[in-house]
Specification:
Length: 140
């Protein structure tokens, strides 16, 4: 039998989600609104100059057909801009799942937005130039 999932909304009517990607971590709050997205107290258009990063964030809202229905507030730190955008998308998907799991969970789960991408930078090994690159081999 499937577990009964219920909404987790605070006294201000917000749902919270924490997301991560590589070394970036994001805390995301959503509340009913007009589609404003604020990242680190800046409009997300000013924070993310590349449109591909902005589209990455909005994928979770597009998947649940909620573009323009929620105001999103995010605090993100660590990593680069692409990793931060991925962390916000992950946190936003989890926040939507907490807001209404019955409606929003299936499309988010199907697209894999609720799953933390476990890939991280591989460490450099001793005697190697990079993580896997070895020095040029000389036969004689």
């Amino acid at each position: 039998m499937a577990p009964i999932r219920r909404s987790i909304i605070d006294e201000r009517g917000r749902a919270y989600g924490r997301g991560g990607r590589k070394t970036a971590s994001a805390r995301v709050w959503i509340q009913p609104g007009f589609g404003n997205v604020v990242v680190n107290r800046k409009d997300f258009v000013d924070y993310f100059e590349r449109t591909s990063d902005r589209e990455l964030i909005l994928e979770a809202l597009a998947a649940t057909e909620t573009l323009g229905r929620f105001d999103v507030t995010a605090t993100v730190e660590g990593g680069g801009l692409r990793g931060q955008a991925g962390a916000i998308r992950h946190g936003l998907a989890r926040a939507l799942n907490h807001y209404n799991p019955d409606v929003y969970r299936p499309p988010l789960k199907r697209l894999g937005y609720l799953t933390r991408d476990p890939r991280k930078v591989e460490r450099k090994k001793i005697g190697h130039l990079k993580a896997r690159k070895k020095p040029q081999w000389v036969k004689r």
